[in-house]
Structure to design on (345 residues):
């Protein structure tokens, strides 16, 4: 079975899930909902410093990912690499490697642009950065908006260094995003970092249902309750930071070096990160680990030729402790009404 996917994160969607993932589009890519393969999403969350330090490597990593079969690409305005992503995609289209309708591009509305009047202009600017005519899936990056200062200020802070937030209702922002679909700029909509109560409120008030909720999800925070909630409402759960991230005093999360996980990896001839990614796939999520390393990109893609047993799944379940590596503390400290992690899920 051939597998299609995308860059810098692992994101697996079976055919049925992929069809559901794109069902809100006004005009889904012609072949997208008829594929009988797994679909893997790679997250192009490459820092601006990385792109500036190693000229062109971000673009080359994306090109390589497309060459080996990735077809889903996740980026964002905040990552400051939409131009690199667009360059890679256009190059592969122009050279005949892929057609535009075979690429599933995801990008995001950043928090300083929650004002409904900002949504369409910034989306058009992102399309200019990408050099493309439409975005397949457009996410609201967070339910909490930040104060808009100017186009260059993505993290507005006051004289005391406190993050400046806004009180704009995410429903108003989402309604403006719905107009992007009507205008043909965007095919489908989703959200990120929303809790179950926020999703419920959104579902009760939206015209176009979100197809995914992208949240932190790993063995340490396996998000089973939120995944079940999303599944009940026909929403996929996309998992960012699926492999965790190094803590200040350790090189990698415990489950990466766990002897029990190492044994499972040896059984299948895989690496422990591949076991973790397969675990998240088997939970019904879409993991999107970030990487610009060509070898790692290929490794993340190679997780579809095995399936974990229930006993092996239980081993990974044992690492769930509810710890967030991305707790959004700058928002939490202000007790903002839309802070998403104040409830269990």
């Amino acid at each position: 079975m051939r597998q299609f996917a995308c860059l810098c994160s692992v994101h697996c969607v079976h055919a049925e899930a992929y069809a559901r993932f794109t069902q809100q589009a006004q005009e889904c890519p012609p072949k997208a909902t008829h594929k009988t393969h797994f679909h893997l999403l790679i997250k192009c969350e490459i820092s601006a410093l990385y792109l500036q330090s190693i000229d062109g490597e971000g673009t080359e990593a994306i090109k390589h990912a497309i060459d080996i079969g990735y077809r889903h690409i996740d980026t964002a305005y905040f990552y400051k690499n939409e131009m690199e992503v667009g360059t890679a995609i256009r190059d592969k289209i122009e050279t005949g490697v892929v057609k535009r309708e075979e690429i599933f591009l995801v990008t995001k509305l950043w928090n300083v642009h929650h004002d409904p009047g900002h949504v369409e202009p910034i989306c058009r600017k992102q399309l200019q950065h990408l050099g493309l005519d439409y975005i397949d899936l457009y996410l609201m990056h967070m339910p909490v908006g930040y104060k808009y200062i100017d186009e260059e200020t993505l993290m507005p802070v006051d004289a005391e260094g406190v993050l400046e937030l806004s009180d704009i209702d995410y429903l108003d922002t989402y309604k403006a995003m719905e107009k992007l679909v009507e205008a043909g700029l965007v095919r489908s909509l989703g959200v990120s970092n929303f809790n179950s109560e926020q999703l419920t409120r959104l579902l009760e008030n939206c015209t176009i249902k979100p197809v995914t909720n992208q949240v932190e999800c790993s063995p340490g925070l396996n998000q089973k309750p939120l995944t079940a909630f999303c599944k009940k409402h026909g929403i996929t759960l996309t998992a960012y930071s699926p492999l965790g991230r190094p803590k200040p005093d350790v090189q990698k999360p415990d489950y990466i070096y766990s002897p029990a996980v190492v044994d499972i990896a040896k059984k299948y001839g895989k690496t422990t990160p591949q076991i973790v990614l397969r675990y998240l796939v088997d939970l019904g999520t879409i993991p999107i680990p970030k990487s610009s390393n060509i070898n790692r990109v290929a490794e993340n893609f190679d997780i579809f030729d095995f399936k974990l047993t229930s006993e092996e799944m239980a081993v990974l379940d044992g690492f769930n402790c509810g710890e967030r590596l991305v707790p959004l503390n700058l928002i939490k400290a202000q007790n903002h009404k839309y802070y998403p992690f104040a409830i269990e899920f």
Q: What stands out?
A: The chain has one domain: 4-332. Residues 116-130 form the longest helix (15 residues). Strands lie at 4-5, 12-13, 39-43, 72-74, 104-109, 135-140, 186-192, 212-216, 236-240, 285-288.
